[in-house]
Structure formats: structure tokens, C-alpha cells
Amino acid sequence: MRFLMTTKATDSVPDETLFAEMGKFIEELTASGVLLATGGLEAGGILVASAGDEITVTDGPFAEAKEAVAGFALVEVRSKEEAVELARRFRRIVGDGESVIQQVFN
């Protein structure tokens, strides 16, 4: 089962300890074959919206930047419970904030 795990932006500034712990976590997940892709996302982005025949394109940043996704990980695990446990481990490393887990259907 594949899951997309996303995390929202926070005001906290990462330090060397966080980078080291996250590096170990990513290395472990990569070595085990669980982590398929990971990355950070630009703060602004581009919004493409459609209504009927009209398509509008708006450059960010947007007013609700605190709701924006700041990073992601695509993982392949045996169960939803395993995905939740990985997200728990991630949150313990990065601290306060929110992450969302969504199953990816093929």
C-alpha cells in the first residue's frame, strides 16, 4: 500500500540536531525500501482553478500560507497502521505541527 504523507508549514526554524535526526530517519526508510520519494515544497506555488470553461492561474503566496503543504514523503508499507506509525515517528522528530496521511490508489 502506498501513502502520501504531507506536513504543513510551521514557524519553527530547524537546527543541526533536527537535520541529523531527520537524516537518520530518511536513511533508515530508504535502506528498508519503504521511502519512495521525499521533498520540500516551495512556499508560494501556483493555483490553477477551473469553473466551467474558465481557467484561472494565480501565483502565490496565498493568504492562508499556514495551511500550505511544506513537504511530503511517498511511502510503501503493508498497512495504514504502519503509515501512521511512520508519521508518529516523523512528528516526534520535527515537533509541533500537523501532517496528513492519504492512501495513493493505483
From TrEMBL:
Alphabetized Pfam families for the sequence = YCII
On the tree of life, the source organism's domain of life is Bacteria
Q: Where is the YCII-related domain?
A: 1-90
- Which protein family is named in the record? Belongs to the YciI family.
What is the protein name for this chain? Answer: YciI family protein
- What is the organism of origin for this protein? Kitasatospora camelliae
